[in-house]
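Q: Can I see a sequence and its folded structure?
A: Here is a first one.
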Amino acid sequence: MCSCRSVRGRMAGGRGQVTLEASSRGVVDALESAQQDIAWAADIVKIFQSIEHVHAAFSDVADVPESMWALLDKTKELERYVIIDLQRHLATGNGRPPYYLSTMQNLLGTTLTMLHENTTQTNGIRQFTGKQGAVIKDCDHLGAEIQAMFLEYGFCQSFEALTDIGEISRRLSTINERMENTEQTLLKAGDGGAAGVHAIIDLHEGLAQQHGIQQAATYDNITKVTALYDKLTCTLTRLENNICTNNIAEDSQVFNTYIQNQRELKNTSTRSLYQYDATETINGIKIHPGTRAWLLEIVNKWFHNTKKSIFFLSGKRGTGKTALAAQICKLYGSDVVGSYFFDSSLGNSGPHNHVDSMLQALAADMCRTLPEYAQHLEEKFNRQNIREQLTGQWQETYRKLIKEPLNALYSCREKRKSRRKVLLIDAVDECNQSDWSNLTTFFNLFMHDLPSCIGLVLTVRARHMAATMPADEDLVESARLEDRACMNRHIKDIEIYMSSSMGAILSGEDEAAAPSRAKADEYTLQNTMDELLKNSAGRFDYAIEVMESFAKEMGRSQGQFLSSVKKSINPIRKAYSTEFDNRTAEFASPFRSYRDREGRSVTVRVMRQSLYPMDKTRVALIRGRHKELHS
């Protein structure tokens, strides 16, 4: 069997043997020497130091509980994924800091704290001293947080539950065939150039897809396809070994080229453009594990399998459009070469919500993600202040910063397959209304002026879709959450979130502090879930508030389900006044249609009941959240 050995297997020869991989050590050494040139190098070094400290803490402990072994295996997975992601980051020349830096540091810090709090040093030997039950829950929660991070940042692809053995086998075979083709192409081309870059990108995607299948299938079903699963593991491992592993080394060409690009970017004239960093917005919004898999699949098909220039997502307020936009940025990483989030809360008096500022900010972002684009602008504007050479008219900004450079760089690649580069604009309806016609004109120009390898992802509220949709709809791929075709799947995602929240509450029923009456028969549980879902009004923002309020009421009422629902709605109804009642009334018909079509396909599961790893991730993740609510 060709599969990754667990940490326990690697330590079988004795304690103290879990260390950073050689490739990780090379990363730390290289980035430590480049901290003056790479702004985020110090953060990556801290991440690997934290991983090393976690390994050391485990290595010194005798009689480690099973749950801790599982958690350490997660940190080893994390180490591997980060190395591959960094290779992709540097090979594509992406100068933007990886989005996952702060999230990863916080999780590793929490893991290390938990380890130290549950072990003590006696006679030179570190012993486990924590309460077994509490530690199991802490490890479950931390493992779920890490798994959710894998999903959030593209280390694990999100799939809906896979129950059919034939479907699982087909997916594994397809991924394996693609990885074998990539391996052969790389071997023919050598270990550098475009083939090396494509191989790193393919490896990253192949690992994420294998991991996603493992999470979406039951343990029993994965066992039934062990031969195919292990064959794919072998192929991925070979490809990983064949890729030049010293890309992130002080003396490698890839690393030195990247350093040079970063030095030039610090002094580039493009810094005069309107600057906008979407990192805080992108990291501040998350989608719930296991939801939106169907919608992300639609995006993925548009990204890989169509020449349509624009992907348009529309939906009512609170349906998660911005969360999906942020998720696309995190999942596609270097492929999203520029992003912009309009925000009406910033007002219209400033520059942010205007088309000209948006175009300048997208150009500034592309300078960070596309070294060849930054160099082109430098030469085009003679290394002089670019903003001073623009008149402030958006048409000129579009022509000089978007149309001409992108055509000069990428139109010659149309004859051969070129990986899509995406610009993303969220909440286009929050652009200054005086600029709406300009924005629509820009979308129409984009479709016809630019190479097909340049794509555009847009989100808009449903009621403004018609006003902003480009004239030639045949060149636009769209997903409309308000349409019947999408509505049931959208509601199902909300029910998955709410049922996970309910499972989180029930998961604590054996704790001394939990309501002793927080146990319900199936009929009561179904009625409770119906009432909660109705009061979401088909909106994720309402659903989150409803479940947080419900969790508090369950604690106060000692586990009274239906009365807790009624009490939990009161503060929300007060906060939103008649809007809440109007929205829930409008949702009555879509809710009935959803129940008639889907029945009760979403089941409330607690941690120990679920056969699906993904369910455990959902429940453990929210359980920790509700624990904080009760404290």
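Q: Show me another, different protein.
A: A second, unrelated one:
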Amino acid sequence: MKEIDSIESWKKGLTIVDDKIGCSFRIKDFIGRGGMGEVWLVDNPEWEIEFAVKNPRYDLVQPNGESIYKRNIKFFLIGDSNDIIFKRFQSEFRDWIKLPIHPNIVTCFYAQELLGLPRIFLEYIEGMDLKEWIAKWIKTDKIKDWEKTILTIAIQIASGMACAHKHDLIHRDLTPKNVLIYLKTEQRPGIVINDSAEIVSAKITDFGLVKKVMQKEINLRNSQINKQNAADDGDNNTQGWGTPEYMPPEQAGEEYSSINKAADVYSYGVLLFEMVAGGRRPYELEDHENYKKNKNFNPTEEVKPYFFKEMHAKYEIPNVEKYRKDCPPKLSSLIRKCLQKEPDMRWYKEKEQNDNFDYFGTIKKQLIEIYNEEIKEEYKPTTYINRVSFHIAYYLKGLSLCVLGNFREAMDVFDATINLYKYYAPTYNAKGIAALHLGRYAEAIECFDKAIEIDSDFATAYNNKGNALLEDYRYAEAIEAYDKALDKLQSKTNTKNTIGVNVAGLEKYPNNVNIYKHKGDCYERLGNYAQATIWYNKATEITATTDITSPTGVLQKTIVPKELDALIEQGSTLVENRKFQDALEKFHSAIEINPNNADAHSKKSHALIGMGKFKAALEAVNTALHIEPNNADAMVTKGYILGATGKYNEAIELFNKATYVDHNNVDAWINKGNCYDRIGRKKEAEYCFNIANSL
């Protein structure tokens, strides 16, 4: 089946299996579409919770009907045509997932590639965005106590932004569209909101333009890399990213790449002005001098940003009291402080007293004081966070950190999850996976055993235990664990499996091929090549299928060529045994299945190196790097080839890139040390070897 077919199959009514975490998701409805992404309502039957799932727009990533998405769960790598779209999407997930669970930030739970596109699983808010809310209640003047409600929303937004800034994240697109208003279950859109602020909860969303604040102390090499990344991500675009009506002057101008937290303060000022002024922003198109000269002035959508840019940069700051006569003077003054043209002038008096100034913490504090004075009662913060159980929320966050390769952070999150609920087997299984990636095999095995103790039919935990034993050179025990996994899977034949999907037979379980392949690895390392060949052949012969339910309820099968991995593994084993020609045939077979598999091309170069064909090897590894520019193993292989041909400085440059992408790549450090040693730079060589030894 072509990849494009699997992407198109994401539709309302479908049940999608995520075999990586052992659960299924049901697509309930399409929520909406933005400039680069679209959002779907999805639920999980086991957890009985709903998610808003965001993914890149299908039409933007499928030019001419051809998928340019290269499957790589860890990095979301893509082709050249849509680098900006995917890099922004990847950046959004990386930064958002690291924010703590906060009552005024939409929680980012999890990310995964499903049916050909990366998907971000977000907290689903039943209500409306702030733009809709302003149009419905403020513009129509239907709300009884505007002051209490608006101040409550303003305080909550400031609270969420204070949290984001505390974690060194700049939003860069804080607008009413990116603030969701949660309505309690007894309140629905269309029912008049009463005068109680307690029924409203504001949550900030859409961190697609978020910027990470860099540390003051940063070495030149990383600084150069960050500048390059900013250029690749569109950060040098002088028009900037964002919403022109809410953009501070510096974000719309040439200073865009150097904006700081003060940019969010300006956007917040515009947003707060709009709420207080009954839906009227500080600057509207009719305020522009061209409109005043010509009442028929009607600029195109393409040129409107330039007019807003000019007004934000040059026009006098309006007084919000002009549009809301009963606006408290202290609130009007606060808004004016936010709307200063120069970033350094926003809250400058307060900043002079504190080198580490907390913009939104200060704004929140002053708003609470205004609330207490004007409403004549003490402000009470919202206690609503979300409807997802805390242990599930933390569990999913831990999985997401694993996706990002942040296994140490993930371990801490899983420990917090276990403290919340000690009897959820998937948490121990996930913690074991994180420990396995950190090389802490004994701890990983202990976690998998605990998962099995809680759920004795947990086939995935047996499989992962086998993987840990395999890595710990305990091959006989690993085989026993794999056999247990296969036995548990076999017992599910013609029954509902643990992920809620009908499995007609053992050969159809998605992870089955990996078990066969890993059993082959164990036998091969025990020297039992006859058994190794049997299991490798089983893996090669099987085409795994994942059953999914169509909108009509009929089971469909998505064919996934899992034998590709087995061919690459067989080829690698043959290279280790110096059977280079046989290995080359395996890699050619893998490339025939998927010409865009970077690993197959990279491993092919290993066989060619063994045959002394360095030119052909270089071509193969260059192909791998063209497919996946950030493939650290391919960089190491190319560096080895360059070093073998005497091009040591070029090789060192590649090894530098490889260790930047994957700091724990031992081969990169060793080969880098060898190159330094060859050119007489003994201290650098020793440094590299020491790092390799520590890993």
